[in-house]
Amino acid sequence: MNPAKNGDSVKVHYTGRLENGQVFDSSIERAPIEFKLGDKRVITGFENAVVGMSPGESKTISLKCDEAYGPHLEELVTSVDREQFPQHISPEIGQQLEIQSEEGFEAIVTVVDVNESMVTLDANHPLAGKDLTFDIELIDVSS
User: Where are the alpha helices (DSSP H) in 15-126?
Assistant: First the structure.
């Protein structure tokens, strides 16, 4: 069968690990992910690694943060007065919240610090700034 190329639809099993070896996600216990090469629906380094693979082929790749979820940007971390939180929300470190900006954009933020008067929110992707390793197995390719 021909190797995967831009424009092809692919099915891929993967396991993603942090630099310390901790698994952060895997498709092994569920269905493989499906995407079209070139549509930029997966991170750039992952998509580039699948191009040229043949069904049944496996590989391990290491991606610097720039090829994955990008660098951790300090300008996406902000502190908010606790009084601005709805009373039914009790912020806790690690909690993820959906917020809406004044311009109407929605974003997922993570609570990274809480004290009596302020809550610090991080709008970076949780894997931003991290180098990642993926074990990839190409299951299927279709044009």
Answer: 44-50
Structural domains for the chain:
9-70+127-142 (3.10.50.40), 74-122 (2.40.10.330)
Strands 96-100 and 33-36 come out as: unpaired
Question: Is 30 in a helix, a strand, or coil?
Answer: coil
Write down the H helix ranges in 7-54.
44-50
How many CB atoms sit inside 10 A of residue 93's CB?
11
Residue 1 pLDDT: 65
Q: Does the model's pTM come out above 0.90?
A: no
32 within 8 A of 97, measured Cβ to Cβ:
no
CA distance to 6, 11, 46, 59, 136, per residue, from 38 (Å) = 5, 14, 11, 20, 17
Low-confidence ranges of the chain (pLDDT < 50): none
Under 8 Å between Cβ of 72 and 66:
no
Short-list 46, 21, 64, CA closest to 137 = 46
